Amino acid sequence: NMKIEIIKCLKDNYSYLIVDEISKNACVIDPGEAKPIIKFIENNKINLKFILNTHHHYDHVGGNVELKKKYNSSIVGFKGDKDRIPEIDVLVQDNQIWKSENFEAKIFHVPGHTSGHIAFHFFKEKKIFTGDTLFSLGCGRVFEGTHEQMFNSLNKFKKLSFDTEIYCGHEYTMHNSYFCSANDPQNLDLKKKIFQIKEKIKNGLPTIPSILADEVKCNIFLKAKDLKSFSKLRDLKDNF
Ligand code: ZN
Ligand code: FE
User: How far apart, in whole angstroms, are the C-alpha atoms of residue 238 and residue 124?
Assistant: First the structure.
């Protein structure tokens, strides 16, 4: 049985530990910094076997070197980013199944935010780690890719089973909700979702995970019918 631990890093990043509850072996997704991860690992007697990176940005790989040195973990990342993911060991590519110990994830290459961005789909657990590509009620800024790449990448997620849990790289949900509301004011599902988000934030809880069913109904970027409307929204959001 795999348990997900949500660990806050830096200002508003989330790092996630996927812990095999029996062996206590674990993977960490996107350690933006080492310190909070080490604290959790030491308190819970976990073996950090793998470090999985969705992309090369500092706030997602900042803890790589220190964690690898301390726990002798293997670093897994996109083949095309082998020169910019610090200390990468295992190179993965689109559609590949990465498997080790009891961990098994399908790799989705989802360019747009960066050219080498990937998502890790733990299909047995119905959980996907989307980094800075899909956020709850938003999507990442297009830095290296094109709007078309980002649009196609987001559409890949829509093909997953709607009960899939979405674990993204940042706590941006509340701010994202303002943009969705402004552009989709009649959406009752969105209003309901925002109510739930506010409750969580009020109680000091993460708004993550979200669930794909909610995102498809409420996330304005997933609702975009075509590339043109997606591009327009993405440009508007950049200046929102
Ligand atoms: Zn990023
Ligand atoms: Fe980020």
Answer: 35
Q: What is the value of pTM for the model shown?
A: 0.98
Look up 109 and say whether it is catalytic: no
Catalytic residue among 30, 56, 60, 109: 60
* Residue 149 Cα to chain centre, angstroms: 17
Q: Residue 190 is encoded by which pair of tokens?
A: 């969105």
Which amino acid belongs to residue 91? Answer: L
Structure confidence at residue 2 as a pLDDT band (50, 70, 90): very high
Q: Residues near 196 by Cβ (< 8 Å), separated by ≥ 6?
A: none
Residue appearing with tokens 């297009």: 142
Phi, psi of 74 (to 5 degrees): -100, 140
**36 closest CA partner among 117, 28, 173:** 28
Instruction: Verify whether residue 59 is a known catalytic residue.
Output: yes
Q: Based on the residue annotation, tell me whether 57 is a catalytic residue of this protein.
A: yes
Query: Is residue 117 annotated as a catalytic residue, yes or no?
Result: no
Distance 23 CA to ligand 1 centre (A): 32
Residue 57's pLDDT is what?
98
Q: Which of 193, 143, 150 is nearest to 173 (CA)?
A: 193
For the CA of 56, the nearest ligand: 1
Residue 129: count of CB within 10 angstroms of its CB: 27
Element (H, E) at 26: strand 25-29
Summarised one tens digit per residue, pLDDT across range 187-199 is 999 999 999 999 9
In the residue annotation, 175 being an active-site residue is answered as: no
The catalytic position among 59, 81, 117, 121 is 59
User: Which one, of 35, 64, 209, lies nearest residue 122 by Cα?
Assistant: 209
Amino acid occupying residue 144: E
